[in-house]
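Good morning C.,

I know you're traveling, so I'll keep this short. The sequence:
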Amino acid sequence: MKLKLYYVTNRNHLGKKQFTPDGYGVHPSVSGIENLRLGKVMLDLETPSLDKWFRTKTGAGPGDGVALSKYLTKQAKKQAKIVAYRENIPDRERIETGQEGKKLGSAEMFAEVQRVLRQGQDVLIYVHGFNESWWKAVGTALALQAMLNRPSRWGASGRNKNVLVVLFTWPSDGSALPFAAYRSDRTEALGSGFALGRGFLKLRDFLTETTRPPTTLEEKAGKKWDPCLQNVNILCHSMGNYVLQHALQRLIEFSPKNRLPRIFDNIFLCSPDVDDNVLEPDQPLGRLHEMCCQISLYYNNGDLALRGSDITKGNPTRLGTNGTADPSQIHPKIVQIDCSNIVNGLMEHWYHLKGDINMDIRMSMDNVSQDSDTRVRERSIKNLNSYSMS
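The tokens, ready to paste straight into the viewer:
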């Protein structure tokens, strides 16, 4: 079985050559924390099928993406091939658009991803959380991609197309030291948010160029204009939501007339390690809804990792513990899903990789109605945009 994963990173490369790396480390790029490197990971497995993990029963239904991520992490570290895109820029002081004839790695990767979109696939950008090494991030992203594309037992609409996961991996410490690693990751997450924001700006410019209506006769003839009509989504896990928070800040700073582009169809906030009021007006993620059609927030009041963030790190109550502090203050585009009833054991923090919760995410990507009988959830009586997994 051959697996492929596209990645964007601001980590430092390992090995002598940055465009033929052995991997990526726990520090920011030597060229600066906002410097982005793009590439793909190729993994050839002897395993003919991943059905074993798809069938594994969990408290949240069949499908154990956590166990699958551990297997894929081990295999990727052992035998995966990294193909990094070259950034052929002779003068790094000049802006990218002013260097005619130079092929940027971002342009090359976007072109490849666009070809995938034209084939009918959707894209999901994945931003991982705290304590993730390079290889663990790769294994988790590969598992997420496999889980989202596994056969649906509910027959949800749109399952005839696959989802392509693009990993954004930032210099998370990858260490189990609870205090030093968390503080380090928090600092790197802030700067990495600006790097992700830079990536959003590149994506905004790319989408603007490739989806605008044709204007010239040449474009109308199809020689230049080739719109891509598939969906682009983003899923942020744990501290990855803190990265998103600062990416939004960077996007606001560089958007014309302070107008945010609608880049995404769905934004998924999973186990978010940010303050529980962050989605309210005038708060750091208060304008996030402007960038998408729908925001889905998944939380679990038994999340031990986030409770540790509250108690040992001195943080306010986390958004991923009980949802928003005041549901009446959030935008109607935001849907909250309480996963506490079906989350247990080792899946308390990574439950977006498990069974029915993972399938619920995929259903949103397939534009399945929030109240569809095929979803394993119930709407709250008190808050109309709140649900409980059951």
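Safe travels,
E.
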